[in-house]
């Protein structure tokens, strides 16, 4: 899930001159001298020059990279990822009803919705949107086990071969596409889409490798947004994006800024805002559990006890980006507070070097001077690796390196080539490194990504979708199955409690921070953004909820 990384690739100066022009002043912000209320919203991402492709299914497309696909293509139900346990907001579907222990769902499709080409959206389009995913493995990115897909009048019925309790939000949040256009594509999972047709309030106006512009449609099923035009600029790297935010050329972005208070917030203390709430996903030190002596859970538990999460949060994550994980279960709070088992409710991560040494001694390790030796007498060393350009992760590794020296582990930080790192992680040819997990409506997605034996592959075999640490535990796999297929909440709670205990006892990864869905934005021209007082949705411009944000924005002072 590369999309979770905040640190974008610094693509070598292909558009340096053009991008510099956009980041030296307000030249890209037509609101600066409009004289009246704002009409244009300038969105930026540090993702380098784009190739035109508006295919909403492709994570590599310009529409996904910059986030504008969500202004064109809409979901059946709008899910607030900050409150994933809440019932979603009806969108293209006015109602949805689950049955048969989440093996069936019935959607009632909204009347009066039109595509941007003027034709009506129908329940047939909705059924086709699911059928296309069922028939094309490359489009069924969440591996939903579809059964039957039927449509009658304004109703669409879906069945599944097993309970979809853990995937319900992924199904509800499916975006809808027009059958008339997509049935003509030869390979929908790969084809380039140059003429996107959606039900959203915007349509494509123009595209360049630097900037994609969307304009407001004449007709939309909801009240038309106040933002008349959206301009998505792809800056060459994090520095260019940060400069554009600081000087007002860019008004909304998702980018990691190490010294955010100085270089962004201080430039306009009244209007420059940072909001990065945590979600049910985590970042942490993944350990290759096939590599000795790190196959020993006592060693992993000892490592956990000396890692300083406060330093990682304040120094590596600039005190805002990935909120520190406090629960020993790895479940982020407050998003996951209600899931934490009673036995772990009050147990928090804390640096305790002496407890770590006791853990090691009990497992046959010996600290001789400043060197830890494993039960065979070999010094314990570890290579911590991440891509050189991922500054927050690399700083985290430097902190962890120093932390581990307190128990005699000699660590080396390897600043890797990004492509080589991805391959090494994918194939299990690494010792340890920072990585993220999947996230979802419950902690299931976190634990499944870390511990599921069904996605376990031997070292050397790539194509994994998780379990990068090659963690093998039959009890964990069984508990994951029991949770996903449970008949009631009591059974789900029992299974999740088991998974938490395995996490605490085995420590397959060492959690450090919660994932966030964050943003840096300006209230100078536009107000109505989500924040701590009104968290109606995550603020990241590349997420589906960005559509809801744009619909709520109003010109400042209006």
Give me the secondary-structure category.
alpha+beta
* Domains (count): 3
Major sheet: size, sense and barrel closure?
Answer: 4 strands, mixed
CATH topology of the largest domain: Dipeptide-binding Protein, domain 3
Helical fraction equals 25-40%
Organism: Kribbella italica
Keywords: Signal
Domain Solute-binding protein family: 89-447
GO biological process, one term: peptide transport
Descriptive report:
The strands form eight sheets. The chain has a four-stranded mixed sheet with strand order 1-10-9-8, covered by helices on one side. A four-stranded antiparallel sheet has the order 4-5-7-6, with helices on one face. The protein has 17 helices and 22 strands. It has helices at residues 16-23, 62-66, 69-72, 123-135, 168-172, 179-182, 238-247, 260-263, 297-306, 309-316, 353-362, 391-405, 418-427, 444-451, 474-485, 489-506, 546-552, and strands at 40-45, 77-78, 89-90, 93-99, 104-109, 146-152, 155-160, 202-207, 211-216, 229-234, 252-253, 272-275, 278-287, 366-368, 371-373, 381-387, 410-416, 432-436, 509-516, 519-522, 526-527, 554-555. It is globular. With 558 residues, the protein is α+β, with helices and mostly antiparallel strands. The chain has three domains: 73-183, Dipeptide-binding Protein, Domain 1 (Dipeptide-binding Protein, domain 1, Alpha-Beta Complex), CATH 3.90.76; 200-276 and 517-555, D-Maltodextrin-Binding Protein, domain 2 (3-Layer(aba) Sandwich), CATH 3.40.190.10; 278-516, Dipeptide-binding Protein, domain 3 (Roll).
Note the topology.
Elements: H1 16-23, E1 40-45, H2 62-66, H3 69-72, E2 77-78, E3 89-90, E4 93-99, E5 104-109, H4 123-135, E6 146-152, E7 155-160, H5 168-172, H6 179-182, E8 202-207, E9 211-216, E10 229-234, H7 238-247, E11 252-253, H8 260-263, E12 272-275, E13 278-287, H9 297-306, H10 309-316, H11 353-362, E14 366-368, E15 371-373, E16 381-387, H12 391-405, E17 410-416, H13 418-427, E18 432-436, H14 444-451, H15 474-485, H16 489-506, E19 509-516, E20 519-522, E21 526-527, H17 546-552, E22 554-555
Parallel strand pairs: 1-10, 16-17
Antiparallel strand pairs: 2-3, 4-5, 5-7, 6-7, 8-9, 9-10, 11-20, 12-20, 13-18, 13-19, 14-15, 21-22
Helix pairs in contact: 1-7, 9-11, 10-12, 14-15, 15-16
